Amino acid sequence: MNLSNLTNSNLILLNNNAKTKDEVIKTLVNKLYKNGKLSSEEGFLKAVFDREKLSATGLEGGLAIPHGKSNFVKEASFAVMSTKNIVGWESLDPDNEVKYIFLLAIPEAAAGDTHLELLSELMTRMSDEEYKEKLFASKDVKQFMTNLDNELVDNTGDIVYTKSIVAVTACPAGIAHTYMAAEALVKAGNNMGVKVYVEKQGANGTEDRHTSENLKNADAAIFAVAVGVKEEDRFKHLAITKVGVAEPLKDAEGIIKKALEKAENHKKGDYVETASSEEKESIGSLVKQSVMTGISYMVPLIIAAGMINAMAVMAANLFDLQHLYDHATGAGSWLNNFRVLGSIVNTFLSSIFKILLHNI
Predict the structure, then answer these.
(1) Any residues with CB less than 8 A from the CB of 254 and at least 6 apart, and which?
(2) Phi, psi of 288 (to 5 degrees)
(3) What is the pLDDT of residues 145-170, one digit of tens each?
(4) What is the pLDDT of residues 321-346, one digit of tens each?
(5) Could you tell me if 210 and 221 are in contact, meaning their C-beta atoms sit under 8 angstroms apart?
(6) Are strands 194-202 and 77-87 parallel, antiparallel or unpaired?
(7) Which of 166, 150, 21, 144 is nearest to 83 (CA)?
(8) Are 65 and 102 in contact (CB under 8 A)?
(9) Tens-place pLDDT, residues 16-71
(10) Which CATH class is domain 163-264?
């Protein structure tokens, strides 16, 4: 997977002289704008600073990942800066000395976008210390771009798992913390012999959705989130440990240990499988299709009802029976029967027709 497709050499600034967080962010936003990634420099800059007010984007190991989600972003992309000086940056690790900064630009509506998938992969790789060290040891921009595309090595083949946990990670922007928290939980679980399955509910939609088998067999559940969990009822049979989305970056092993301890004092319920969003959507589509089919059969009846009503009026006019039509109120009058039948059918079917159209 070529992460270099998300950026270019003009967006990589190594050994920069920037000294403050504001200076770093403004410089990188300007680079993104000049390289055609943004439609408004000021608009996106505001989105980034608004995000900074929500929670710390400094992490640990010298890393900070400011980001903004905005309609001013043309396509998902990122800019990078390494600095000569330590930059003061609010971080999850109070001792974090920031020198490596990724600025992520995320479109407001980009679920399923290929660029966004690559951005998610970048966040996963940045959780790997070896990958990060090699990346920022690059001597120049060309080497940086090459190292950016290095794949992670999977060393989990020999691990024997004794427990399993289903987890959900989610944050407002749906990129940085969502994926890094997921990776932190998985890595910590591997170290502890605990298989952690993580469902990411991020900017790219729901990824790695939990299977019924994993939900049924899990010993506990962890929600590392800053927003609501979708379809939370799936986990009601398990002991649930809720933490902030950034907490796994500080102490993932501690969270897993806490979740398993909580599960020991919680009687596990029976897992009841529910329809997924995709299945619900397909059911909705089936209902909609059925309704539309019904409407197609109703249209001729509505037309026929109108014609029946019109025939009664025409008969009265053609045969000089207007006086009979006007006074045709008896049950035995054929003109009255035509008129009443047409009116009832027309009114009834037209009303249903309008209601169905309104609810589709």
Answers:
(1) none
(2) -60, -45
(3) 999 988 766 666 678 999 999 999 99
(4) 555 555 555 555 555 665 666 666 66
(5) no
(6) unpaired
(7) 21
(8) yes
(9) 999 999 999 999 999 999 999 999 999 999 999 998 998 888 988 899 999 988 99
(10) alpha beta
> In this structure, are residues 101 and 34 in contact, taking their beta carbons and an 8 Å threshold?
no
Measured CA to CA, the distance from residue 328 to residue 339 in angstroms comes to 9
- According to CATH, what is the number of the domain 3-148? 3.40.930.10
Whose CA is closest to 73, among 113, 101, 120? 113
Q: SS3 of 183, please?
A: helix
pTM over 0.90: no
**pLDDT tens for each residue of 232-278:** 999 999 999 999 998 998 899 999 999 999 999 999 999 988 765 44
Instruction: Using DSSP, state whether 7 is helix, strand or coil.
Output: coil
What are the structure tokens assigned to 183, written together?
Answer: 């990776």
Give the position of tokens 């939990």.
210
Please identify every residue annotated as catalytic.
Answer: 67, 171
